[in-house]
Design goal:
Strand order of the largest sheet: 1-2
Number of domains: 1
Order of helices and strands: HEHHHHHHE
Number of strands: 2
Shape: globular
Number of helices: 7
Structural class: mainly alpha
Length: 176
């Protein structure tokens, strides 16, 4: 038996967001192209992890770990295939886990407020960076460092960008 009252369970079911298939395809593609192309010309924007933020947003909005896995896998593998410096599958694995956990979190908590979104974007950036570092050391055997202070600063920067980005993406939801 579930300890969640029936009314609350129904409320959570109705809050699952729906998107046009064009949005689901074009937004992640635009984020990946931004990451690959724009970051080459404007060095400061290379630290902005838009594919990760889009993965987190769609996983939170769909409120489903399965949807989060699919978003994370698709976005991560597409990012891997367009990035010449990373082996195929590294971003795929890391973003798949981020998508899964974001989907799980969205089932447990209300994720519509800006404060919660800021904290979740910060947490999932740190989780992504740590897990990518772990995979690089464990699977590839490369001795790379994990600079905690730099990662924290980048996490704050990405979280600050995530809040207005999520509000813009909210406008693309299909209302029923």
């Amino acid at each position: 038996m579930s300890d969640v009252p029936a009314g609350l369970h129904e409320l959570r079911k109705t809050r699952v967001s729906k998107f046009n298939w064009i949005s689901i395809v074009c937004i992640p593609l635009a984020a990946i192209l931004f990451q690959v192309v724009v970051s080459r010309f404007v060095r400061y924007l290379s630290y902005l992890e838009l594919p990760l933020l889009v993965t987190v947003y769609f996983s939170l909005a769909r409120r489903s770990p399965v949807a989060g896995v699919l978003f994370g896998m698709g976005i991560g593998l597409a990012q891997d295939s367009l990035s010449p410096q990373h082996p195929l599958g590294m971003f795929g694995i890391a973003k798949t886990l981020v998508g899964y956990f974001a989907g799980m979190v969205s089932q447990r908590f209300e994720v519509e407020s800006s404060g919660v979104r800021l904290v979740l974007a910060l947490f999932f950036f740190l989780f992504h960076q740590f897990f990518y570092w772990f995979l690089t050391r464990a699977l590839l055997g490369e001795q790379v460092g994990f600079e905690l202070l730099q990662t924290l600063v980048l996490a704050v920067m990405n979280a600050i960008v995530a809040v207005p980005l999520f509000h813009v993406l909210d406008k693309l939801k299909i209302t029923e």
